[in-house]
């Protein structure tokens, strides 16, 4: 199998050199070119035909977002954004993911050990991006009518990772204002989740917030697990509260989808679980626990996933009751909230 042909776009010469060194150390990746700004990158894309683009978020001339939007409209291809861990960086990166970027990495910095860890993650994400589905801009789903009977005494738990930002920007605006409470784990850094929740809140009928310790779950509200050092769990049933607790990585993540799903499993038939696009297998075991307890469980279909990793792992484990395309996911979730187990 030939190496993943990668083009680096960054206005900093030192950062281009750093990224090239990190990527070139992996024999499965070939850096075919480096561009200091989007106009040069545009010509290099035409001549070099790369498999993956790494793209700086903030650049002079044409910024990364404007260039990404053009790429996704004119020549969709896998793009990995390279951002800084700042409030501005978080906001712009989230918008980039909404526009169709496959994933993002933070710019390498820190100790040699930090750089080595960053290099491993960068190479992994570039290779995953090469296997992903490039999309022509963000998907928008029609808003759904309000579900009869209000919140129906149910609770919805959702897990997602790579490609999940775009998926959630499609799914959540389609949920009605009176939907059951929704708890979500989306893998992202601590500095990103608050901005992510605020952006989703502005585009949705439901209220979207970053989850806080002890918050009582309410109908019509979506709770995004904060990134960083805490797992998110539900305690006390459908009308219970959120617990944020420290702990080791679970399935390689903190917060972990598995931890959330296992905490929701005791609700049995009062819960609905959905596992969306993502790399790895986080959430598979937890979704199986939910299904065995009587919950309705849905998995995003391969054809509509950016990366069919987490849903695939859950399906192979027997945790997915029904596979659903992204466009059909809002109604499938609402239908599962209305109906009894076994009738999806």
Automatic annotation (TrEMBL):
It is found in: Cytoplasm. Its EC number is 3.1.1.61, 3.5.1.44. InterPro entries: CheB-like, CheB_C, CheY-like_superfamily, Sig_transdc_resp-reg_Me-estase, Sig_transdc_resp-reg_receiver. Its main location: cytoplasm. Keywords: Chemotaxis, Cytoplasm, Hydrolase, Phosphoprotein. Residues 149-340 form the CheB-type methylesterase domain. Belongs to the CheB family. NCBIfam families: PRK00742.1, PRK12555.1. Involved in chemotaxis. Part of a chemotaxis signal transduction system that modulates chemotaxis in response to various stimuli. Catalyzes the demethylation of specific methylglutamate residues introduced into the chemoreceptors (methyl-accepting chemotaxis proteins or MCP) by CheR. Also mediates the irreversible deamidation of specific glutamine residues to glutamic acid. This is Protein-glutamate methylesterase/protein-glutamine glutaminase. It comes from Sphingomonas naasensis.
């Amino acid at each position: 199998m030939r190496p993943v042909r990668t083009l680096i776009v960054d206005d900093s010469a030192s950062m281009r050199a750093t990224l090239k060194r990190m990527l070139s150390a992996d024999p499965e990746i070939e850096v075919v070119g480096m561009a200091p700004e989007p106009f040069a990158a545009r010509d290099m894309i035409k001549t070099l035909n790369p498999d993956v683009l790494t793209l700086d978020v903030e650049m002079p001339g044409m910024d990364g977002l404007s260039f990404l939007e053009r790429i996704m409209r004119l020549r969709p291809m896998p793009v990995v954004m390279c951002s800084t861990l700042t409030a501005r960086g978080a906001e712009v990166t989230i918008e980039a993911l909404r526009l169709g970027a496959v994933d993002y990495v933070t710019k390498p910095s820190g100790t040699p050990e930090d750089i080595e860890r960053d290099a491993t993650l960068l190479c992994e994400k570039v290779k995953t991006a090469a296997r992903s589905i490039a999309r022509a801009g963000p998907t928008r789903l029609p808003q759904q009518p309000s579900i009869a009977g209000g919140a129906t005494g149910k609770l919805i738990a959702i897990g997602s990772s790579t490609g999940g930002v775009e998926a959630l920007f499609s799914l959540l605006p389609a949920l009605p204002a009176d939907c059951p409470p929704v708890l979500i784990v989306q893998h992202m850094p601590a500095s990103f989740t608050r901005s992510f929740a605020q952006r989703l809140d502005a585009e949705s009928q439901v209220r979207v917030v970053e989850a806080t310790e002890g918050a009582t779950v309410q109908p019509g509200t979506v709770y995004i697990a904060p990134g960083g050092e805490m797992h998110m769990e539900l305690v006390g049933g459908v009308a219970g509260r959120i617990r944020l607790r420290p702990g080791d990585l679970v399935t390689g993540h903190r917060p972990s989808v598995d931890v959330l799903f296992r905490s929701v499993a005791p609700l049995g038939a009062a819960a609905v679980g959905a596992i969306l696009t993502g790399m790895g297998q986080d959430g598979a075991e937890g979704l199986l626990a939910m299904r065995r307890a009587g919950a309705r469980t849905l998995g995003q279909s391969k054809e509509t996933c950016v990366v069919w990793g987490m849903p695939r792992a859950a399906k192979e484990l027997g945790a997915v009751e029904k596979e659903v395309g992204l466009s059909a996911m809002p109604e499938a979730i609402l239908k599962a909230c209305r109906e009894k187990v076994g009738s999806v």
